[in-house]
C-alpha cells in the first residue's frame, strides 16, 4: 500500500493507521472512515499512458488508487471492464443531449457489488482471515460467495439470511459453495447473529457500509467509466442509492481523478431513491440527521431503511453540486421496459431506478436539455425475474393458424 | 465481404453466391452450407499484430473472418470478450494437467448465442429486412431480442413460443420489446407458424441450424479463445452439443486460424450431449444417419431431438480427431455445483454439460492425464434458477442464537 497515507473519520477527522481490520472511528457514532492517498507520489509513478498500456482489464488495473498490497492474491473473477453504450434514442426520449449507459450488471456475478466483494477478498487475506462473512440475501452476498469461490477452495464465505429469503436467491449462493445460515427470525436477528459470529470467530466482515476499503472497490466504477470516456466526463453521473456506499464510492473515484489531474471537473452526482424508501433524500433535502424509513419498494437492492453510509452519500452529492430525487415503483418498472427496448440492457429494478430518476430530473428541470448524463446500471434483470414479469407485459396469444395471426397482427399494427 | 468467395454445400459441394438470404442447398436434404474465404487475401491484409492493436473488443474485431460488409451497422451490445480462467484446482479434480474455463455466460444477454444473434442482426440489414424472427423459448430468442433492441428501435424481433413456455423465460424477451407470439399448441406448431409467417412477410430467419452466416458468428468463440491463449491451443476443446451449430462453429473458427497460420494445430474437439437426448453422439458412434431422439434432460438448451446441423457437428469432431460422450442429468447438476465452488462461475445445466463430459472422458481414458483442455461455458446459471436449486443443496437452519450456531458448526466441521 505504498500510496496509502492512512484513514480519517469523516465526522471528526481523527486519523488512523490503515489496518485491514480498522472499520470505524472510536469516538464517533456513524464514524465512517475514508482512505487517504499520497497523490503526488502516485502522480510521479503513474499516468494515463501507463494505464493505457496496462493489460489487466479487471479493476486491478487501478491498483495505484486502491488500498491493497500489490502482491496479495486477487480473486480470479473478471470484475470490471463492463461495457458502456452511447444511446441517442434514449437521450432523445429523456430530452437530453447525450446519454451513456454503463451496464455493471455484466459483472461476473451480475452486479456492481462484485467490485466491493473482490476488494473484501483481498483485504481479508491481508488481515490473515480465511473466512469472510456477511448478512444479506442480495447482491452483496452473491458477489461475496462468487469471488470467494474463485479463490479455488482456499477461502470460505458464510452468509446469514433470514428464513423468509426466497429459495431462488439462495441457489446462487449455495452453488458457489457458501455456508448459508438460514436464521429462524427477522433480517435484524440474522444481522445480529452474523455480527456475533464474526466477532467470536474472527472472520472478515464484508459490510460495505462500515468497511472503508470496500467503498474503494466500488469507486472503480467511476474511474473505469472516466477511462472509457477518454477522461471526458458528462455533466451528470447518476446512481440509484440504497445504503449510500455506491454513490459515495463513485464520488471518491472522481475525487481521486481530479487530484491526479486525469479529469478536470467533478460531474454532478444525481442520487435516486425509491419513493417507498428514501431516507437519504430526506436527510439531503432537510439538512438534518437521517431518520429511519420504511422499506416499501420492489427495488430490493436499494430498500435500506437505515443506511449506514448516509453521511458519505450526502457529502458526495453536495460536494459535486448534485441533487437527490425519488421515483415510484411504477416508474421504475416502466423504465425497466424502456431501457430494455431501446438498448438491449436488462436491469433489475434497483439497477434501473437511477435512469427513472434521471427522466424525472429532466422533467423537473434539474437536468437541462443541453446537458449530458451517464447512468450506471447496477444489477442484472435476471436476478429478479418476478419483477421483470411485472414490467414485461403480455405475449400475443394465437391459434396455430396464419390467417388468425395475420388478423391479430393487423389489429395491433405489427404488419 | 471482400474476403468471402461464396458458399458451398457440405453434402454435394455445390457452390452458391453468398446471398444473405441463401440458407440451404437446392439439391440436398439437410444441405447445410458453409462460407468460403480467400485466406491468401486475408493473410495479405491482416495479421496477429494488427489484431492486437484493434481497439474494438467485440466480435467485430474479427471482421476479416466474418461474412459481413464492413459498414453494415452493428448491434450495440458488447458481444464477445468473455473472460477465461485457468483453474488448477479443477484440473486437479478432473485429473488433467491444465484446464481453462471460458465463461460465455457473461455475454450481454447471458449466453453464447449472442454471437449468432449479433450476426443475424447484421445479415438481416444486408438482406434489407427490418424484422428478424425465430421460434425458441431459450437463449436464441433472448439473444435475438436483446441484440435487436440494441439497434434502438430501428429493427424488430418476432419470437414464436408454444403456450407452455414458462412466463419467466418470456419476461426477458418482452422487456427487450420483442413481439412474442404465444401459439396455442406444441413446439412443432409454433415452429411451423413461424416458418409460414417468415415466408409470408419476408422477415429474416434467425435459425442458426440452417443459416450459414450465424455459425460464422458462433465461430468467434474459438477465435477469441485462441487469441486470449496467445494462439497456444490446449489439447482438447470441449462443448456441450444440442443442434450441433456451436461445435461446428468452433471448428470453423479453428480451421480459419490454421489456414491463416495463426495456430499450428487443431485441438481435438470433445462434444458432450445429455444421456436423455444424444442423437448426434449416436450418429457419430454408429457412422449412420441421424435418428430422431427423445428430449429427456434438464439441460434444455441442448435438448434437441432432431438437430439440423448434425452433419457439420460430426464432421467437426471427426476432422479434429475428437470424440463424443454423453452425461447424465445427475452428473450435470453435480458439476454445476463443483464448477461454482471451485471457480465462482455459475452455469446453466447445458452450460456445464461440457465440463461434466470432460470429467467422464478423463475417467474413460479418452482425455489423458498429461493433457490440457478448455471448456466453454455456454450459458449463465441465472437463466435457470429452478435447476440451480436442485444442484445447490440446502442452507444450515438455526435459531437466532450463537450457542446453537456454534453447536451446529462444530457438528458440520465448519469451525
TrEMBL record, chains A, B:
GO terms for biological process: isoleucine biosynthetic process; L-serine catabolic process; L-threonine catabolic process; threonine biosynthetic process. Pyridoxal 5'-phosphate binds at residues 139, 378. The keyword Metal-binding does not apply. SUPFAM superfamilies: Tryptophan synthase beta subunit-like PLP-dependent enzymes (SSF53686). This is Threonine synthase. Belongs to the threonine synthase family. Catalyzes the gamma-elimination of phosphate from L-phosphohomoserine and the beta-addition of water to produce L-threonine. GO terms for molecular function: L-serine ammonia-lyase activity; threonine deaminase activity; threonine synthase activity. Its cofactor is pyridoxal 5'-phosphate. The keyword Transcription does not apply. It comes from Halanaerobium hydrogeniformans.
Amino acid at each position: 500500500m505504498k500510496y496509502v497515507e492512512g484513514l480519517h473519520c469523516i465526522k471528526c477527522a481523527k486519523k488512523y493507521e490503515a489496518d485491514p481490520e480498522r472499520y470505524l472511528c472510536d469516538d464517533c457514532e456513524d464514524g465512517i472512515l475514508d482512505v487517504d492517498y499520497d497523490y503526488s507520489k502516485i502522480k510521479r509513478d503513474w499516468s494515463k499512458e501507463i494505464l493505457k498500456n496496462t493489460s489487466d482489464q479487471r479493476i486491478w488495473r487501478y491498483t495505484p488508487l486502491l488500498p491493497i498490497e500489490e502482491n496479495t492474491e486477487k480473486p480470479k473473477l473478471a470484475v470490471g471492464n463492463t461495457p458502456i453504450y452511447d444511446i441517442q434514442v434514449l437521450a432523445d426520449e429523456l430530452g437530453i443531449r447525450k446519454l451513456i449507459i454503463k451496464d455493471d450488471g455484466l459483472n461476473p456475478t451480475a452486479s456492481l457489488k462484485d467490485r466491493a466483494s473482490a476488494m473484501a477478498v483481498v483485504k481479508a487475506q491481508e488481515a490473515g482471515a480465511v473466512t469472510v462473512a456477511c448478512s444479506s440475501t442480495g447482491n452483496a452476498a452473491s458477489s461475496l460467495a462468487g469471488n470467494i469461490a474463485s479463490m479455488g477452495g482456499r477461502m470460505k464465505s458464510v452468509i446469514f439470511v433470514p428464513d423468509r429469503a426466497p429459495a431462488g436467491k439462495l441457489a446462487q449462493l449455495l452453488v458457489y459453495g457458501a455456508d448459508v445460515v438460514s436464521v429462524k427470525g427477522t433480517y435484524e436477528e440474522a444481522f445480529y447473529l452474523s455480527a456475533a459470529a464474526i466477532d467470536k470467530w474472527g472472520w472478515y466482515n464484508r459490510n460495505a457500509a462500515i468497511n472503508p476499503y470496500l467503498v474503494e472497490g466500488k469507486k472503480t466504477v467511476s474511474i473505469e467509466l472516466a477511462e472509457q470516456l477518454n477522461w471526458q466526463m458528462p455533466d451528470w453521473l447518476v446512481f440509484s442509492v440504497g445504503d449510500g456506499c455506491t454513490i459515495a464510492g463513485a464520488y471518491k473515484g472522481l475525487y481521486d481523478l481530479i487530484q491526479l489531474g486525469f479529469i478536470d471537473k467533478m460531474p454532478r452526482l444525481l442520487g435516486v431513491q425509491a419513493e417507498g424508501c428514501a431516507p437519504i433524500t430526506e436527510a439531503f433535502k432537510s439538512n438534518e440527521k437521517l431518520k429511519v424509513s420504511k422499506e416499501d419498494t420492489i427495488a430490493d437492492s436499494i430498500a435500506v431503511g437505515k443506511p449506514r453510509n448516509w453521511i458519505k452519500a450526502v457529502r458526495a452529492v453536495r460536494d459535486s453540486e448534485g441533487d437527490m430525487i425519488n421515483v415510484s415503483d411504477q416508474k421504475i418498472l416502466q423504465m425497466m421496459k424502456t431501457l430494455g427496448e431501446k438498448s438491449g440492457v436488462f436491469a433489475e429494478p434497483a439497477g434501473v431506478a437511477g435512469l427513472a430518476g434521471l427522466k424525472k430530473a429532466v422533467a423537473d428541470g434539474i437536468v437541462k436539455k443541453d446537458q449530458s448524463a451517464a447512468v450506471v446500471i447496477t444489477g442484472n434483470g435476471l436476478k429478479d425475474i418476478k419483477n421483470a414479469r411485472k414490467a414485461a407485459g403480455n405475449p400475443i396469444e394465437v391459434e396455430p393458424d396464419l390467417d388468425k395471426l395475420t388478423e391479430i397482427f393487423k389489429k395491433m399494427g405489427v404488419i
